[in-house]
Amino acid sequence: MPHIAILSASVRKGRNSHRTALYFKKFIESENLASVEILDLQEYDFPIFEERLRFFENPTTEMLDFAAKIKAADGVLIVTPEYNGGYPASLKNVVDLLYDEWRKKPVAICTNSAGPFGGAQVMASIQFSLWKIGAWTVPAMFPVPKVQETFDENGQPADQAATDKRATVFINELLWCIEAKKRMT
């Protein structure tokens, strides 16, 4: 069974995109699609990095733990909010921290916003950063408009059937990429 790391990127107080990360964890587990864990950047509380991990003289245990979890995952699902048309500094920070860990890693991207467009503006910028370091971005999107209305605090969707239908297509694309990578290595 593949292993998926869900990267919950928001570290804001009162964040809403984490609701989507909780939903995906429950959905993937309930459908028995993969083993899954949430890597919550709010829990890691990383400093702003001045260098890639491989150049750190004394990396912290948290840095090494995070890198190992990304490396060990068969695929990564990034759940990110859109802030002013971009993605949060917390996400840019960990994308830039790692390098080899991202190389050819299947990465699915879920964008969230409080407005009606679901974070669509952030997609190109996060995709470009991931491409530059050699990650394999999955050719599927999962935008979540009005995230505060779409999921409750525990990740329960307002419209379970419609959300599960969209999630099935999205996660199946990630799983296809994971299987393709496995066959190519």
What is the second-level CATH architecture?
A: 3-Layer(aba) Sandwich
Poorly predicted ranges (pLDDT <50, ≥5 residues)?
none
Give a short account of the largest sheet: 5 strands, parallel
CATH topology (fold) name: Rossmann fold
Order of helices and strands: EHEHHEHEHEHH
Helix content: 40-55%
Describe the protein.
- The chain is α/β, with parallel strands linked by helices and 185 residues long.
- The protein is globular, with a radius of gyration of 15 Å.
- It is 44% helix and 19% strand.
- Strands 2-1-3-4-5 form a five-stranded parallel β-sheet, with helices on both faces.
- It has helices at 17-30, 41-44, 61-72, 89-97, 120-132, 147-150, 160-184, and strands spanning 3-8, 35-40, 75-81, 106-112, 136-144.
Brief summary:
This protein has helices at residues 17-30, 41-44, 61-72, 89-97, 120-132, 147-150, 160-184, and strands at residues 3-8, 35-40, 75-81, 106-112, 136-144. With 185 residues, the protein is an alpha/beta fold.
